[in-house]
Amino acid sequence: MPGTFRLEPAKLIPDWYSQNAALRPKVDKVCDALDELLPPFLYGEWYHNLAALFLTAFFSYILSYIGGGLGSVLVLCFAIAMYYRTSIRKYRMDARDDIQRELSKFKMEDDEESVEWMNNFMLKFWLTFEPVLSALIVENVDNYVPDYLPSFLESVRLSTFTLGTKPFRIESVKTYSNTDPDVVCMDWRVSFIPSDTTDSTEKELDYKVNPKIVIKIRAGKGNAGVTIPVVVENPTFSGHVRVRIKFVGRFPFAKLVEASFLEKPVFDYTLKPLGSDSLGFDINLIPGLQAFIRDQVHTILGPLMYMPNVLTLDMEKIMAGDLDLSSANGVLGVTVYSASPIKNIDTLLIDETPNCYIRFFLDEGQELDRTSVCENTFTPKWNETRYLMLNNLNSLLSMELKTIRPGYKERRLATANYDLSTFDDDTNSKQEGLDVMLLHNGKQVSDLRVDLRYIPVSKAVKRPDGTIEPPIESNTGILRLMINECHKLPSSQISPYIRVIVNGVEKKKTKVVNESAEPKYDESCETVILDKSDTFVRIEVKDGGKNANDKLLGTFTSYLNDISKLQSENEGWWDIMNGDEKYGQIRFNAEWKPMVMAGMNSLVNANGFDKPPIGVIRFTFWGAKNLRNVENITGGKSDPYVRVLSGHQIRGRTEVIDNDLSPEWGETMYIPVHSLKENFVLEVMDWNEKSKDKSLGIVEFKSADLIVQRVGDQSVNPDLWFEPSQPKLDRNVRLLSNDKQTSKGELHYSAEFLPILASPKKREKPDTKAEGSDDIPSLKSLVGTYIKYTPDNLVDLYSYPAGVLRLKIHEVQLSHLTYAYCQVIVDAVNPLYKTAKLRGQSLKFGEQVTAFIKETDFSRVAIEIKPAHADEKDPYKLGHLIDSGTSILRRIMKRKRMTGSTFENDEGVWLKLMGTDGPGRIRLSADYEPLDNYVLNPDESLDNQGVLTCRLLSGKDLKAADKSGTSDPYVIFNVNGEKVYKSDVVKKTLNPKWTNEKFTVNIQSRVTASIRIEVFDWNQVQGDDPIGSGGITLRGDSVESFMARRVDIPLDGVAGVSGSVQVEFIWHPQLLSSKKTQTSVLTSSRTYAHNNLTAAEAITPLPRSSTISSTASSQRLRTLSTETSSSDPAAVHEISGSQSLESVSRYSVDDTVSIAPSQLEEMGNVTNATGRDGKVEFTFIEARGLRGVDKSGYSDPYVRVKVGKSQVFKSKYIAKTLTPEWNEGFTYKVGNDPLVFDIKVKDYNKIQAAVDLGQTRFNIWDLIKLDAPNGETTELWLPLYPSGSGEILLKARYSSA
User: According to the 3-state scheme, what is the secondary structure of 429-498?
Assistant: First the structure.
């Protein structure tokens, strides 16, 4: 607009940067003296200039203060000005460098640069590379095109393909810098115009070859079809391609090359049917044909390499000669178990219930395989394994749930995807127990439970010394058959094709070659072979002519092993037989690619171990040597342990040995076995606290090496039983990697087989059986031992303390929606079975598990319900159930007497869950298979491990060590050579008596433990003098479980010693957990309770929430002390079944809620007992078995006591211990009314809130029994809840007001 100011655009780059260097002041070119005198860190930053201004003002003030003149001020200003000029110049130079760097980066990412040097290189390289590329395309395109053909075309085959002598051009390249250090990503604009000869020399024009593509299209079906040869000439092409290269540190240094089109490419061509000589016009002029062909090309290339799909080339395989994209380099074993209840498909169903199957395919492309059809069910169970042959792991596996109905089109119900690149790591070759989510339009339809395991083909490996290690021989692998040609067929009027059949299943049907006695095919097929020795191959030559009706011309039949032996002798030529006459010859080659398929166990399916056990294998792991150190980088050593796997289930594991490459375990575990075909994998693992444990090597154990099957002499339905083939196997075995390559280290173990009681089958005897009489059971087992029966002719399970327990987890019901699984723990810290992960409020598992029971009197079984995200190292759980062996046997015998139903038909019983957030219950079935004539080793007894409570009582007739004729004795206790306790000194006596001298100690093995006491005389100045020592072992009757036993230990070891020391021992059998095992509910004390549900409660739906008053109950508190425990410590204390689930008391939890409110249900309900006015003195002595919640594996526990909402006591905290000793207390006035004390043990933290370790509640008048003798004082161990949180020792003494 006239008269207005012209606005200059804002400059992003300052003038001082853009000005020409020649126009800058010459002083910028002169090196300042300060540049050489001052270090670089003293100038150039903004704060340096700020300091210069501050110093100018400060020194000016100093000069004026001391009377300096104007000259000194000018000198100071000159110096500061020189410093400022030097600093600001350096600042601008740094800024220019930063701007230049950013501009270069922006230019690289935003601008596209030309690469003429690359085009010149391709001009030379193309003459060598083009024939190889063309041959590769011809060989592999035919594998993909048939899946995308329209219905009116029978086949499309690429017979000739050449790209000519002129290469493509790279017009421009754009590079991305923000990638991983080992990745280069570029966008290329490429063009291919072979008809453009403007830039070609005369020599290039002389040997120029034009591109030519010949495609044979067969339209129609069967005899009505016709083959049309189509020639494509003068193709032109341009496209925008993204290329991504991943580098590695070994030859050929480029691991993967990925290419994809960012947009649909533009292409043109000349299309001539029937050959260029017959019809020389371009039929693309026909309306609609060119668009149709273009759409077909886009349809084929889209899933292959249109963004986001990428075409991946493995350069390592290309350089090694494994470029065949149609050849399988490995097999993905997919075991499909079952799907959770299908929902959200009402609009997709044709009828009321679907007929479901799973279809497998890669990248929306060719179908690999499919399962069988489960008809008319919303909860399909397949229990099938499919082997999918893969060329590489750069694809996405799609698992599609479909339904089929006769007369209707198949319908897709949902799809789940899994990225196969996760198997690219050698240490991550299997994913077991996966629950993949099936989705339809973003909505969950079901959860599919699968196991995935990638088994690569075993190939030759080049050793560092240059020698070649041959591939591992295996009876399992991939069979690749290449059908080449037929020779000397009797007639040229036939149109032969080849049909390949392996083990009765058609694997390949070749094309039909019309009217030829020498047909050529060059077609291949591949199939997975599980047993090479039992594979039978049949090849049929048939006539595919119009009127031949697929007449069989001849066959070739042979076992695969015979083909492998003879094909090198006859050069692949085999006779075709028609009856007894020779019909001609066929040339084919059989290539065998071995694979190692260890650990694939078909016995473990969606229903768990649903086959009855045949016995138990007793594994003893003695040790290992020279294990691989996977923690060498961190400066440590591996922390090894051994686990036993059956399929994907971990059936047992040893303890972890810290920092030891040659560990010694000496541990025994019993693993149920169900069949001679059940194989176990013994895997040595390295324990990691936060990350996934790493495999150090595996050993495969075959049950058939140890067990033999016996068959009775009956002609019909003979008796079957199993016996050990040898008494014991003792092996030192070299460890192997997961792909059966030799690994470092060896494992020493032994194995024994213990069969179950083999009872003869019941058989009717018509000649001896009277009407109304019962079958008389056999008195002896099949191995000749006598069977113990009850008076009503049932096997007396109580008489067999050891056996195999079979459990079936039917269903778990919770009061809220969840995503969870169950894990079963039996007499151990680690779980031996995990179920599938299910979603919902009612989780219908229907899975079976088997477990070995050592001693029914002591054994305990726990079932934990854990959230899906929690692993075995996570202690969090949604609820749990603990039951004893005797209680389970009681229910089994009751079922057999009352209903007579078998384990398979039993509907189970409902049991209440503990520790749930609201009401919860579980439905279980159980059965028991006793072991025949088994005697447990004493050091393997459950009574062999536990906690020993020692109370020092008195001494008698001790040695006099002082001149006064007395001593000042005290006692030191040593367990297995380690000092564990020191008593107080009792002065001037030879018959001392001690009070409150009590301690507990964990004993890993009662059989091998030794306790030794040392008695000293205390001296104030000189050293203490020994006055005797003695020892005791815990074997036999020295101590008794849960019962106090006083022992007089005689003293010796010192000249003139005499007397004895009296000690009271109480033994508490208990599982002891280490720092490197998860917290288990079975590591707590043995006193626990659960409720059986009544029939009315079992059919009552659970409420979704619960708000119950805490005053609604009146049951007795279960405070179970070690002194008052029952003689049967594993007995289950039943609670009245008439109590409703909704009537369980609920309590609020204050402070930091580490304990779920519902877990207080385990503490029982306080009573309304009353007392008298007075005061009670509480003393908190110690605690044991607490949880370690700090990183060190310990806690800093203290005690907090509340009455109502008021805190009445808080103890000091004891640092870094799980067995704190406080010996602190308080006194509280009490009345005659009920008074509830809330005791909580907490972990102290300086910064964060305290963490709850355990809690208990009681009415004081349940502890103080004023009407009982000595009832004013009590000292007892109170269990902390939730179960597994430990115990606290409390002493309470009442005194009147």
Answer: CEEEEEEEEEEECCEEEEEEEEEEEEEEECCCEECCCCCEECCCCCCEEEEEEEEEEEECCCCCCCCEEE
- Integer Cα distance of 1199 and 1211 in angstroms: 5
Cα within 13 Å of Cα(263), Cβ side = 10
Look at residue 620 in the predicted model and tell me its pLDDT: 94
Which tokens hold the place of 153? Answer: 């075309």
Residue identified by tokens 């003979």 is: 718
Which residue in 461, 329, 431 sits closest to 742, CA to CA? 461
Count CA within 13 A, CB hemisphere, residue 215: 18
The rounded distance, in Å, linking the Cα atoms of 337 and 433 is 9
The per-residue pLDDT for range 371-398, each reduced to its tens digit, is 989 888 888 888 888 889 888 787 888 9
The Cα 398–Cα 389 span in angstroms is: 14
- 3-state SS record for 148-205: HCCCCEEEEEEEEEECCCCCCEEEEEEEECCCCCCEEEEEEEEEECCCCCCCCCHHHH
pLDDT surpassing 60 at residue 1113: no
Encode burial over 180-197: b for 16+ CB neighbours within 10 A, e otherwise: eeeeebbebbbebbbeee
**Amino acid identity, residue 40?**
P
Task: Please give the Cα distance from 839 to 841 (Å, whole number).
Answer: 7
Which token pair is 1066?
Answer: 């109480």
**Start-end of H helices in 959-1055:** none
Burial classification of residue 921, based on how many CB atoms lie within 10 Å of its CB (0-12 exposed, 13-18 middle, 19 or more buried): buried
Q: Amino acid identity, residue 1148? A: S
| Distance of alpha carbon 947 from alpha carbon 250, whole angstroms | 57
Alpha-helical (H) ranges within 1099-1188 are none
Check residue 1101 and give its pLDDT.
56
Using DSSP's 3-state secondary structure scheme, residue 715 falls into coil
**C-alpha closest to that of 851 among 860, 843, 842:** 860
Cis peptide before 1282 (omega within 30 of 0): yes
Where is pLDDT greater, at 723 or 406?
723
* Tokens, residue 944: 């062999």
Are the beta carbons of 1058 and 959 closer than 8 angstroms? yes
Three-state DSSP class for 907? Answer: coil
| Angle 1010-1012-1015 from CA coordinates, rounded to 5° | 175
Instruction: For residue 583, give Cα distances in angstroms to 448, 491, 555, 580.
Output: 51, 10, 9, 9
Query: Is the separation of the CB atoms in 318 and 312 below 8 Å?
Result: no
How many Cβ atoms are within 10 Å of 94's Cβ, its own excluded? 12
Q: In whole angstroms, how far apart are CA 384 and each of 218, 400, 463, 603?
A: 38, 15, 39, 11
Count Cβ atoms below 10 Å from residue 103 Cβ, excluding itself.
12
Phi, psi of 727 (to 5 degrees): -60, -40
What CA–CA distance (Å, rounded) separates 1034 from 1009? 7
Q: What is the pLDDT of residues 302-338, one digit of tens each?
A: 877 888 888 887 776 666 555 555 677 888 989 888 8
Pairs from 422-429 (Cβ < 8 Å, separation ≥ 24): 423/332, 423/393, 423/452, 423/454, 424/393, 426/737, 426/738, 426/739, 427/694, 427/695, 427/738, 429/453, 429/454, 429/455, 429/456, 429/738, 429/739
DSSP label at residue 568: T
Phi-psi region of 1133 (alpha: psi -120 to 50; beta: other; left: phi over 0): beta
Residue 697, amino acid: G
pTM listed for this prediction: 0.55
Question: Closest Cα partner for 334 from 451, 224, 251?
Answer: 451
The helix (H) or strand (E) run that includes residue 59 is helix 46-65
